[in-house]
Structure formats: C-alpha cells, structure tokens
C-alpha cells in the first residue's frame, strides 16, 4: 500500500490538492494520504495533521505576524515525514512554506512533485532555482511557469490548468437568469470582491459605490454578487445595505454569475482566470496594504497583476490597482465598455486566445499519474 504526503496551505491549494488525491484514488485505491490542508483534503480522505487556513493572509507584513505558527507547522510536518516515511510528497501552492518542505524532502530522499509551484515568473527566477536544487518535479499549470522552471534546471511536465476541467456551465444565459431571477434583456454586472475577508473589506465598498451611481444614472443595470467560499454572506448583505441599491447576493453560483454577466468587476486572482475560460469581459481590481504593495513593486518584475494579462503578455483587460480602485474609475470602465460593443468583442477574442494557452483538459489526471510515477506506485 502506497503512502503520500500532501502539503497545502490555503483554500485554493486545499481544493486543487483534494482533486489530485481523488484522481490518485481512482488509479491506486489502496493509497494512504496524510499531511497539511483543510476541509477539502479531509473530505477527500486525507489524514490532516495541520490546518493552516486560519492564518492564511495576503501581504508581507501580514504574513510576518504569523511567522511563529508557520515555523511550528513546518516542524510538525518534518516530524510527520520522518515518522510516516511516505513514498512521495505532493506540495501544492503555499510557496514560502513549500520551498522549505522541498528542501526537507530532498534531505530525506523523498521524491517530490510541486503543483501550483512557487510563482518564479512573478517573484524572480531565484524561486525556480531553489525548487530545482531541491529536485522537486514541477507539474506546470502555466506556459510561462514551464519556461522559467525549465531554464532553472528543474524537471518540468506541463500538465495544463485544472480550471479547464472545472469551469463548465452547461446552462444557457437565459436559464441562469431565470434561476437567479435576473432580466436577461437588461445589462448584468457581476461584482466579485475576492475570497479573503481582507479583499472584501478593501474592494467591495468602491464596487458598491460605483453600482449605486450606475443604478442612479442608468436605471436598467442589474448587479449580482456571488459570495466566495469562506466569506460570510450576511457580512456582504450588511455592507450592501449601506447603499441605495438593489442587488442579488447568491452563494454557490460563481460560474453561473460569470456566464450570465455582461461585464465583471473582479478581484485579481483565480476568478480572473475562471472568467477568462467562460469568456466574460472584466475589469480587474486589487488593493492591499501600502507596505505590501510597495515592497511587492520592488520585488516583482511584472507589467501586469491580472493573470489574463500576464499570460497574454499585454493588457487585454483593464486593471485598477491601489489608489486607482475608486468608484469613479470602476464606473468609467463599466460605462466605457458597455457602450462600445466592438470593445467587448475584442476582449472576448483575446480571452479565447489566453484560454487556448492554458493547455488542454485533463490536468488533474496527468498530475495524479505524475505523482504515482515518481513514487513508483503506478506506471
């Protein structure tokens, strides 16, 4: 019976790791799993020894506050590795922590696969070199990721992005509108302020102010907020109640809202890639603490923050960052694009180009096969 250690640290990593675990179980049903993660990995049958999601943060100064807990978690996982002696390790996202885990697995001679690897194409090639020196095998989900890790000397397998399998809405726009009680004949604007409380607090008020102005000046606009997992719906409703605005707040319908919407205002992150696959035009917004933003500017060598723009290597959708995330600017972007059908058509064409660069469906299966192969559990 094979044994696999899985290490994931945030909600998204927990979800992606769990999907790989389920696929491995189809291929090698007797495999046992243990490690670090949260709800999704538990539900997939992993013995979760550490759940770090309560200290998941964005930003440098924010992460420093939890340094001691991160250090304690690393010690716990090292002890578990020594005790359990797994055949292979699967490290998912959680870059700073998993770079350290990869060094430990190398010393213990445990084959290691890195999925959603440290973003060396964002933070610089040094991260890629660290993972290459740790002999982690990279299951690459982005084309630019494949290139930078290969140049660093790592073994890289381009598996493609798992969202190509996950983002699939069979219902038509009309069917979704009927279900959500929206008028498909009137413009629908989706507001997506993120999956972290901090993001919602920074971004949602400006989104709601812009929506309030749009409703006042252009009365036929409709607004809908799909509540991200882990976000309190009541908190969203309470924040929205401060504005003279009628909007829908729905749960468990992110993709449906994306498909039904004519335009999205969306926090930078995975949701922008989901919207890309669905093909919905958007403006990307993001705001974080002053210290995190300016330190990031010093460390990050990227012209864009949004994944669609990074993958395309040009701005195909507008971005509003930091002090530019204002109700006036959001209002301007929405009205500009919604009044010019040729711009909407152009964005949709560019989004299709980016979608094609993400590879082909089957990423989770290919990753599961790679993990089993490296652990000599299945060939």
From TrEMBL:
Record carries keyword Lipid biosynthesis: yes
Keyword annotations: Glycosyltransferase, Lipid A biosynthesis, Lipid biosynthesis, Lipid metabolism, Transferase
Molecular function per GO: lipid-A-disaccharide synthase activity; phospholipid binding
Record has Transferase as a keyword: yes
E.C. numbers: 2.4.1.182
InterPro entries from the UniProt entry: Glyco_trans_19
GO terms for biological process, alphabetical: lipid A biosynthetic process
Coiled coil: none
Enzyme class: transferase
GO cellular component, one term: membrane
Alphabetical list of SUPFAM superfamilies matching this protein: UDP-Glycosyltransferase/glycogen phosphorylase (SSF53756)
Reactions this protein catalyses: a lipid X + a UDP-2-N,3-O-bis[(3R)-3-hydroxyacyl]-alpha-D-glucosamine = a lipid A disaccharide + UDP + H(+)
Purpose: Condensation of UDP-2,3-diacylglucosamine and 2,3-diacylglucosamine-1-phosphate to form lipid A disaccharide, a precursor of lipid A, a phosphorylated glycolipid that anchors the lipopolysaccharide to the outer membrane of the cell.
Classification via PANTHER family: LIPID-A-DISACCHARIDE SYNTHASE (PTHR30372), LIPID-A-DISACCHARIDE SYNTHASE, MITOCHONDRIAL-RELATED (PTHR30372:SF4)
Name listed for the protein in its UniProt record: Lipid-A-disaccharide synthase
Annotated source species: Halothermothrix orenii (strain H 168 / OCM 544 / DSM 9562)
């Amino acid at each position: 019976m094979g044994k696999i250690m899985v290490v994931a640290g945030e909600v998204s990593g927990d979800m992606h790791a769990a999907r790989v675990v389920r696929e491995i179980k189809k291929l090698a049903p007797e495999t046992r799993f243990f490690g670090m993660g949260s709800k999704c990995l538990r539900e997939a049958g992993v013995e979760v020894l550490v759940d770090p999601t309560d200290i998941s943060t964005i930003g440098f100064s924010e992460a420093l506050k939890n340094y001691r807990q991160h250090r304690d978690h690393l010690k716990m996982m090292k002890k578990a590795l020594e005790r359990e002696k797994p055949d292979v390790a699967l490290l998912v996202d959680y870059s700073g922590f998993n770079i350290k885990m990869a060094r430990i697995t190398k010393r213990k001679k445990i084959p290691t696969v890195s999925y959603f690897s440290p973003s060396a194409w964002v933070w610089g090639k040094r991260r890629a070199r660290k993972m290459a020196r740790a002999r982690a095998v990279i299951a690459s989900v982005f084309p630019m990721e494949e290139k930078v890790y290969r140049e660093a000397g790592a073994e890289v397998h381009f598996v493609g992005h798992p969202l190509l399998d996950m983002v699939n809405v069979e219902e038509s726009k009309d069917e979704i509108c009927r279900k959500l009680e929206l008028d498909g004949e009137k413009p629908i604007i989706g507001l997506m302020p993120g999956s972290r409380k901090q993001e919602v607090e920074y971004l949602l008020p400006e989104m709601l102010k812009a929506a309030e102005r749009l409703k006042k000046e252009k009365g036929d606009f409709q607004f809908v907020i799909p509540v991200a997992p882990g976000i309190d719906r009541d908190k969203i409703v309470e924040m929205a109640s401060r504005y003279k605005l009628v909007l829908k707040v729905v749960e468990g319908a992110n993709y449906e809202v994306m498909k039904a919407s004519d335009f999205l205002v969306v926090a930078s992150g995975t949701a922008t890639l989901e919207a890309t696959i669905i093909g919905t035009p958007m403006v990307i917004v993001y705001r974080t603490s002053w210290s995190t933003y300016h330190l990031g500017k010093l460390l990050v060598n990227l012209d864009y923050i949004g994944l669609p723009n990074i993958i395309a290597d040009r701005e195909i959708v507008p971005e509003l960052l930091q002090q530019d995330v204002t109700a006036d600017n959001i209002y301007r972007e929405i009205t500009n694009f919604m009044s010019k059908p040729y711009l909407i058509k152009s964005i949709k064409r560019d989004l299709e180009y980016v979608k094609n660069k993400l590879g082909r469906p089957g990423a989770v299966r290919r990753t599961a096969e790679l993990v089993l192969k490296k652990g000599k559990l299945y060939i």
